[in-house]
């Protein structure tokens, strides 16, 4: 009687090695949960919005049958329902632990830089004023308005170095780099960023979300930071804005979960550039056995949250389309991965940019509610550009 074949040991990788191995075109994702680097394409995942999780499950099943080792579906989905998706099942996936603090990464080159705001600051504040009129006169209660910065260097942007600088600056962030090139693009496009906002994570039957809304810029002075944190926790405007987001996320997860834990009050979490009101929501899935409750399915159900869109969702999204001159594309969408068991992690694509050749298009938005000040919202977007600008070595240009 023959003995069973011994199990092949799973390769052991180091987080720093995966980051060093990243090349444009790869999929990279890291967080406190671990690091993932994927290369090649076994199959794209094509499906209409709301059906992507079921299509992903079918492709993952086919990949297992074909012998792909521990397949995942990975990629990004854009903001609007008709926005593009870059979801694929990669041919090769390597995993490691979470990134740690590494050695400083050399600044990017690029020679002289030019910076073009889109739209102009005064156009953005006018859009905020129009949004406030809509809130005062109609059914809109909150809207998130975004703007862009186009930063162009003299040389092509070194995407691997930019990613390494983002990870080094904040190893606890959800860092990502994903190819989002589309047919007809004159050069490859990479969506890259370091998001502080966990849309949803699933491990077995345990589900976690961490919505953020309500912000203050972080500064170098500890006493001033303490004052800003206290101000944020006492701000009626910011607390109301945050409550919209937390309530919507809890309402959606409540359709899937039992034993849902929603803290009564938010706390404040920090990134290297910002302070945010944060509510960490967790629950246990009522049914974890089908594609309809996978991490990707939960992410689709949650998207878009009021943190990047508004309340009510449909009206806010239509108003965004009317007031924002630039298409968001993948900004304020979602990026992440799901495995064959339905586990995975998806984050909101904020603190991000699209890189194409010599140009980096940065995105940032601010939540507008009754009582918002247009100049303050403009300043908030400027502060949120800081994550990417610091990685580019261009602090202070926004």
UniProtKB/TrEMBL annotation:
Molecular function GO terms recorded: isochorismate synthase activity
Cited Pfam families: Chorismate_bind (PF00425)
Alphabetically ordered keywords of this record: Isomerase
Domain Chorismate-utilising enzyme C-terminal: 122-384
Catalytic activity of the protein: chorismate = isochorismate
Superkingdom of this protein's organism: Bacteria
Entry EC number(s): 5.4.4.2
GO process annotations (BP): salicylic acid biosynthetic process
SUPFAM superfamilies: ADC synthase
NCBIfam families: isochor_syn
Family listed: Belongs to the isochorismate synthase family.
This protein's name: isochorismate synthase
Species name: Amycolatopsis umgeniensis
Lineage, uppermost ranks: Bacteria, Bacillati, Actinomycetota, Actinomycetes, Pseudonocardiales
């Amino acid at each position: 009687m023959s003995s069973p074949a011994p199990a092949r040991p799973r390769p052991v990788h180091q987080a720093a090695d995966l980051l060093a191995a990243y090349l444009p075109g790869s999929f990279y994702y890291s967080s406190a949960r671990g690091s993932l680097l994927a290369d090649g394409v076994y199959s794209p995942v094509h499906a209409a919005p709301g059906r992507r999780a079921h299509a992903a499950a079918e492709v993952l099943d086919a990949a297992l049958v074909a012998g792909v080792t521990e397949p995942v579906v990975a990629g990004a989905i854009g903001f609007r329902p008709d926005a593009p998706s870059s979801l694929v099942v990669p041919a090769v996936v390597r995993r490691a632990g979470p990134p740690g603090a590494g050695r400083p990464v050399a600044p990017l080159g690029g020679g002289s830089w030019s910076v073009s705001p889109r739209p102009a600051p005064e156009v953005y504040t006018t859009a905020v004023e129009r949004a406030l009129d809509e809130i005062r006169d109609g059914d809109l209660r909150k809207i998130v308005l975004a703007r862009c910065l186009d930063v162009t260097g003299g040389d092509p942007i070194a995407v691997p170095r930019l990613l390494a600088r983002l990870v080094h600056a904040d190893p606890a962030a959800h860092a990502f780099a994903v190819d989002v090139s589309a047919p007809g693009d004159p050069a490859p496009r990479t969506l890259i960023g370091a998001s502080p906002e966990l849309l949803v994570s699933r491990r077995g039957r345990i589900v976690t979300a961490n919505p953020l809304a309500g912000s203050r810029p972080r500064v170098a002075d500890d006493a001033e930071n303490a004052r800003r944190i206290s101000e944020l926790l006492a701000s009626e405007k910011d607390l109301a804005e945050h409550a919209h987001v937390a309530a919507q996320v809890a309402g959606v997860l409540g359709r899937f979960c039992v034993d849902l834990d929603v803290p009564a009050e938010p706390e404040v979490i920090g990134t290297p550039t910002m302070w945010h009101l944060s509510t960490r929501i967790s629950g246990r899935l009522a049914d974890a056995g089908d594609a309809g409750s996978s991490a990707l399915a939960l992410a689709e159900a949650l998207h878009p949250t009021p943190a990047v869109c508004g309340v009510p969702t449909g009206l806010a999204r239509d108003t965004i389309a009317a007031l924002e001159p630039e298409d968001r594309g993948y900004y304020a969408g979602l990026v992440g991965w799901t495995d064959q068991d339905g586990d995975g992690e998806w984050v909101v694509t904020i603190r991000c940019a699209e890189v194409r050749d010599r140009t980096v298009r940065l995105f940032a938005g601010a939540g507008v509610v009754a009582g918002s000040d247009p100049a303050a919202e403009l300043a908030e977007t400027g502060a949120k550009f800081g994550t990417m600008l610091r990685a580019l070595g261009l602090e202070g240009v926004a």
